[in-house]
Design a protein that fits this description.
The complex is a heterodimer. By secondary structure, chain A is an alpha/beta fold. Chain A contains 6 helices and 7 strands. Chain B is of the alpha/beta class. In chain B, α3 packs parallel to α7 and α7 crosses α8. Classes of the chains: A alpha/beta, B alpha/beta.
Chain lengths: ~200, ~230
Amino acid sequence: MPDVFISSPHEATKDAALLANALEHKGITAWIDRNEISVGDEWEKKIQSALENAHAVVFLIDGWDQSDKLQKEYMTALESYWSGKTRFLVPVLVGAKAEPPNFLRQWKSLRVKNKSDWNRCAVQLAAWLHTPGHFRSEPSKEAKLERDHRLNEIMKALRQWQSTEEDPGRNTLPERKPMAKSSRPGEFRQVGKKKNRPSKTRK
Amino acid sequence: MARKKTVPQKQENKLSPSDQRNRREHFGRGELSIRPDRSVFVNCPLDEQYAPLFDAIIFAITCCGFLARSSLESGNVAEPRMERIARAVLSSKYSIHDLSRCRGEGSAGLARFNMPLELGIAMGRRILAGDDEHDWLILVPEEHEYFRYLSDMGGYDPKTHNGTVESIVPKIIHWLATRPDAVYVPKPVDVLRALPNFQERKRQLLVDWGGEAPWADLIRVARDCIPD
C-alpha cells in the first residue's frame, strides 16, 4: 500500500517524479503511474487499486486538464476519501497562476514555484501523514454562498418559467429555420438562405 | 401636477442589439436564462419501482447546485415527446443515463429502449459539438450485461449501483463534484440523511396537485430540503 498516490496530467510527469523522489527521501512511498505501469498491464484497474489504497492523494495541478483519465482519478479519490479509505487530499499547485478545481478548493493546498519547493512540499506532506486520524475538509462560507447564489438564480428562472409556461433553455438552442420547397422537384431548402449562384454577367 | 419622467429615445437606441437583448428580463435570456453548463438531463425509468431512485437523483443534483431536467418537465403536451426530450438533452451540458430497464419484461420478454435512444442523442451532441460541450454519467445495475446488447459502449466505464438510494447518490455526487462547472457539494452521507425529508415534502406536493406536480415546484421543494 503506497503512502501517497500522485495524480498528474500527462504534461506534469516530470514534476510528479520530482515530488516522488523528494518524498522517498523522507521515507514515504509514492505511487506514480509512470513507474508502476508496464506494457500489457490493465492500467485503469491498477490505478484505481493504488488510489483506493493510498493514505493520501496528491493532485498536481498546472492548469485545468479535463482528460478522462484525470477526471476518473478525481472521482475515485473523492469516493475513497468519503468512504473513509483515504485520509486526505492535497492539491499541489504548480506555478504562480494554477488554481485548484472547485471540488478541491476546500482542501489546504501547497504551491510550487521552483525546484526547491518540491522538498518543502515533501516535508509538509510527511508532517501531515505522521499526524494520526482523518483530515476533515471544511467548506468555506464563500463556497456555500456560491452554490446558494446559483440555486437562487435557477429558482428565479423556474418561477418565471412557471408563470409563462415557457420551456427553460428554449433560447439556448439555435432556432430551426422552416424548410421551403425548392424549384427542383423533391428538394427542400432553408428559407432565407441565399444560393451561391454563379454570376450571370455576359462576357 | 408632476410631469412624468421619460427616457430619451436616443439613449435607448445607443445600446447595441445584444445589450438590449440582455436587458430583457425574459425567461431563457439575460439574467433569467438557464445555462446549459448548469443543467443535468436525467434519463432514467419513470415507473413506480424506480421512483425512490428518481427522487434521489433529482435531489442529489439539486444539492450539487445544478438544475435537474427531464422529459417530465414540460407541461406542453402539444409538442411531441421526442422533441421535448431532444431539446432538454441538447440544452444540457450534462446528462445521467440509467440503463436499468433494458432487459426482457412481461410475458413477451420485451426490453425498453428509450434510455439507450436518449443516450444516443447525448452522444450525438458530444460528437457534433465537441468533448467540452457535453458529458454524461452512465449507470447500470450490478452484474448488468449491458456490453452484450450495447457492445459499442465498451470503454465508457458505466458506474454500477445495486438499486438502492445509498448506492446511487454517492455515484452522482462524486461525478458532479468533479465536473468543471461544479460548485460546493455536500457529502453524500448528508444528502442521504436529508433525502427522507425531500421525499415526504414531495409526497405532500403530489397530494396537493392531485398526483402530478409542476417540475418547477418539485425543484423548489428539493431546494428547500438541501442540507447545510
